[in-house]
Design brief:
15 helices, alpha/beta, 14% strand, 340 residues, DNA binding, RNaseH_sf, Tc1-like_DDE_dom, elongated, Transposase Tc1-like domain-containing protein, Transposase_Tc1-like
Length: 340
Amino acid sequence: MAKTKELSKDTRNKIVDLHQAGKTESAIGKQLGLKKSTVAAIIRKWKTYKTTDNLPPSGAPCKISPRGVKMITRTVRKNPRTTRGDLVNDLQRAGTKVTKPTISNTLRRQGLKSCSARRVPLLKPVHVQACLKFAREHLDDPEEDWENVIWSDETKIELFGKNSTRRVWRTKNAELHPKNTIPTVKHGGGNIMLWGCFSVKGPGRLICVKERMNRAMYREILSENLLPSARALKMKCGWVFQHDNDPKHTARVTKEWLRKKHFKVLEWPSQCPDLNPIGNLWRELKIHVAQQQPQNITALEEICMEEWAKIPATVCENLVKTYRKCLISVIANKGYITKY
């Protein structure tokens, strides 16, 4: 809503004079061309404070000058990994002594919030361009096409421990900008590996991989779980299978097996896991598993299976139906996803 123009002091005093003369709020409003609520507010203020002047703002004055605010805002926008301690020292050198909470409050008023840096794969320029190319080519694909895809991927889940975090200052919806993330390599750590798939109809099968996965094991997983998942999800004829460009997935034996089975495979850009909506399911699964606090590998596997089966079909449906927004985000941010 647009801010209304402030009444002049003469107008406010005239409202009070007319009120003291016995006129009603409605009559005053009609005479001066003002809303009744505006007239009532001025009269209330006069009755309470015996003045119509603007009152001084409540609360303590800001400790950081406007120039100081600009300085620290410019600093964290240039380097989001700047700590509050660094900013305290910068201001102290400039002659202003403040605390860390003051820094947080000041930056929050500028739309910046301290958040944990999101861990994402380290992308080379060629990977970014590949993601951008994929998004542009598929932007106008009908929603029905995405509803006919079985999405798949692998992930690792730790039994104990928590990955180290790094806090960054960022604006809303900018959690995946390169400056606000910590690069990682794929499958870095964890205690059990899972393979899973889903479609717009809901989650498919989830498999715990007991040994180090190679191309032969991956082909075995597909042969035992892909078609049963498609049947359980009641996929339409001509459904499409999605997996990334992991060497196990692109191996000749895997491609030949998929070709012999007449499975259509979605062409996928390298190193673009954030384009795969199953990543959202993995995040939800890990949160729910961590809340259960499993104490051994067996319990970890059982809880993963239980929580995966609990994922509502509506969650899967929403991920697929909003996939176009993901592609729009990639294009708008030149190959990077900032929100999905």
